[in-house]
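A protein record pairs a chain with a discrete description of its three-dimensional fold. The following entry can be read in just this way:
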Amino acid sequence: MGETSGPLLNAAQQQAITINSGPVLVVAGAGTGKTRVITERIIRLIQDGAAPENILALTFTEKAAGEMRDRVGEASLRAALDTTIATYNSFGNDLLTRYGSEWGLGELRLLGDIGQLVFLREHFDEFGLEYFAPISNPDGQLDTLRSYVSQLKQQLVQPDVYLQYAGSLPVADPADALEAQKHRELARFYTTYLRLCRQHQAIDYDDQIFLAIDLLKSRPNILRTLRDQYRYILVDEFQDTNPMQSALVDLLAGTEQNLMVVGDDDQSIYGWRGATLANILDFKKRYPNARDITLIENYRSTQSILDAAYQLIQHNNPERLEVINKLDKRLHAQTSDGPPPIVRHFYTLEAELTWITDDIAERLQHGQDPGQIAILARTNPIVERAHQTLELHDIPHIMAGIRNDLYAQPAVRQLIEALKAVSDPLDDLALFHTLSGPLFELSQAELSALTAQARREHVCLASTIEQSDNELFTTALQSIAKWREQSKELNVGNLAFMLLDESGWKQRLYDQALRAGEAYVQVQALKKFFDTLKEFEHTAGVASVQSYLVNLPLLQAGGSDFEDASLDISDSLVNILSIHRSKGLEWDTVYVIDCTEGSFPARSHGASLSVPQELRVVKSAADERMAEERRLMYVAATRARHELILTYSDRHGSGTHRKPSRFLGEMFDTPATDTFDGEDQTSLELFAPRELPSTIPLPEKMLQDGIYVLTASQIDCWLKCPLDFYYKYVLGMPEPESPVAAYGTAIHSAIERIFEGRRTNTTPSLDELLTQVQNALPQAGYQSIGIRERAHAQALTSVRVIYDRFTKDELPVAVEQSFGVLIPNIPLKIIGRMDAVYQHGKGTEIRDFKTSSSVTTAEKAKDRATSSQQLTIYALAWQIMHGELPALLTLDFVETGQVGSIRKTQKSLDTLQAKLTTLIRALQAGEYPPGKDHSYCVHP
């Protein structure tokens, strides 16, 4: 399900892709093939003589960038490999990595949401907060302040400008004086935060663009280099850009202005994330010579659906491109017409949802594909209610993209309670939860009796348990005491994994996952939780369990989204999802439910802090909340191909009477409305919770449009042991932090930096490289402090060897060469990276760098290369990309200097393809048998 297009380019699309110079604004209505225009223009530019490395395409998500690379690669492999197709953040981060040293930046560490909060708390006293630090809860506003910093950066507010503004505010009366105090404190906080980040070489996600802009403004020579390189710039979904992203594009466009932006102002629905319509509405003010091209041939919906949506969106005039640029944006259907959109009215929400369920059931009985039906709602609670109703009536469906608080997940709460019990011997409540929970599964009844006894005797629960004669209980206490002693030497992540593993909980999750899917959501939550622990460890000065628990209330207040990965868009089930989640998708039949005032349009819930209008770099009346809500309805309506059904009801439970959404009246002159009495008043609150899936689905990124997408490493894992593959990549069981893996990554990064530096004449010094690797090596996860010190010393010795060698050796033609190839005759795409590609007189050599110190002879190196499935995968990928086998495949053991090279024959590639066919059949059947070789699972 996604944007479709006709087999041939229409006249407007053809016009767009043939323009090879100057600024262009492509206004692409819903379902008009906008992404195809970008990819086809890239291909056309190269066909007309442009070098792929001179082309830059920017988009918002890694998924969108990957899809764009795939489309370009289908027509031109060279274009896909050499064209820069990236998200704004990854592109900005690349600029900071490549040129940051010329601006005083060293090796940067990225702060995620968890890292930012920990960083703010550790430097709390340096901010001098008063207004935002009440004595009762001094650090309770840090998450709000973090979000406000993001707003300021997106609006390109410089700290000196904010300080000047705050200092100029009036203080004539108490209210003015308090407002002035608030902004002076915010300006100082912002200034101090930026200074501390630079001081500690830390950046947040916004900095990847914010600092890149500062870098280019401060170093015009670097800006000129980039303008010379990126002579053609293409931007997707331009209506969703914030001022910071648009400013980066404007900087790069330079005087040549070979810039094409593609977007639709009527589909801008991310104002709450910082997007502003001013960027696209004012494009021709910034680029007066820009040409307009409007795509209005819609390949998705019927004309009656398009007409209703068009009538609705007219109510956003005059703040629309159609009016501002004098365009015709009415979409013309390229499909046969269908039934007109209809409105259904009910007395209660229960009756509304029951009717929808019955209507879907009837459609399914008449043979309609459930995967071509969707229920869209403005808010997540209504998505949940719709799910509950379909669940009750056994309608095959899936609820997609609902995000919940990670810390509210039962498995995460249990593990946190165990960490508390280990950390604090007197925390009776944590001990009770730990002993009765999944780590030990001891009798709650017996524990309750012991707890009552402890209270009567005024002693701690542990003392009462020790005096009892229950061996299971005392053994559990001994385990906790052992972990408490070991916690002195462990960081919180390693301690948490020890609890999970040594208690047997991890093995029980294994067993449950093999029998059915009830463990799946628990494991997904635990995996995400361990990711947050790693982020905490990388930021916190001390990463002990005590330090983590001190920071925990702040982290919980900031929240961490957890999305159940089993809940995703389905091609075979009815989909229930929010309208924001539905953008870019399409179905034959779409229900837009709960179209009532207060629900859709939703009530305003703006941020508690917002950037003052005087500091905003762009302002647009089109960003007004109601206009965006109307655009959201426009997006919902244009998801439907054949039938659009809008529903509303007078009451939600015992609440006040609700009015129908104003959008219904705006969409139809005389809406066809049927009223149903809704006698079925079943209480939805009594429904049982959602049953977990009986089989584990593959993660979304592994199965896209019927094609299995696997990395070379994942395939290598499956070939060794399918059960390993299942645990690691399907179930996603948390793994302990691996110093060995971090060591390898650090060495690879050092080699890459040397090669990239030589290519751009910015080779780092040995001291810079030593510092980079030293900072990248983990402090935890080793068996002892002594082993850690030896490992770190060995790493620095290796860096010196690598530096001496790779600053002199032959320079490869490609480093970290990414690839994505479709395997002939089976639905499999392999993606990966080749460490280095060399071109010799005899042909191509693909080289994979290894850090194993055990390969000390040429014979061992040759044996490892001969048995390497990964090298065979690289050979197959290269053959598909270039039509020939590589001349040589090499494992290069950089620490010992040993090299093992082999040549692959067509027979070995044919054998691999046969194994890949078996792999796909097993994935389709959901079969994961144990292999002969394994490193992760425990075979029976």
Observations:
- Residues 1-6, 677-694 have pLDDT under 50 and may be disordered.
